[in-house]
Design brief:
Blueprint lengths: L1 E2 L5 E2 L3 H23 L4 E2 L16 H13 L4 E2 L3 H6 L2 H22 L1
GO biological process, one term: fumarate metabolic process
Protein name: Fumarate lyase N-terminal domain-containing protein
GO molecular function, one term: fumarate hydratase activity
Length: 111
């Protein structure tokens, strides 16, 4: 049963219900795919960040290329390592989208 603005029960077809489920799940998956790109950004560099003390210049690029060859994935060395290391925004976004998808799937299961 769907509820309108007046909070009155309105008959709903099974097709409408599954259409809503499909749309919710596909939206979450689309957002997760967008977020997943951020997982390939690696702030690999030197210590302390950005100063080139202790490691030769270009070590981040070299390590990323080596990881790409070993894993057959497409990691990238981010240009602003301070921003990547200082915040958890991307992980929070991914976690939120995974949590939202889990809730949607649980709702589908319970109905």
């Amino acid at each position: 049963m769907a509820r309108g603005l007046a909070r009155v029960n309105i008959p709903e077809t099974l097709g409408n219900e599954f259409s809503a489920y499909a749309d919710q799940v596909s939206t979450r998956i689309r957002r997760l795919k967008t977020c997943a790109e951020f997982l390939f950004e690696l702030p690999i560099n030197d210590t302390p960040v950005g100063t080139l003390i202790c490691t030769p210049q270009g070590v981040g690029k070299y390590l990323v290329e080596s990881l790409n060859q070993l894993t057959q994935l497409k990691f990238i060395d981010v240009s602003n390592k301070f921003q990547t290391l200082a915040t958890y925004n991307r992980m929070v976004e991914i976690s939120g989208n995974l949590n939202s998808l889990a809730i949607i799937l649980a709702e589908i299961h319970h109905e």
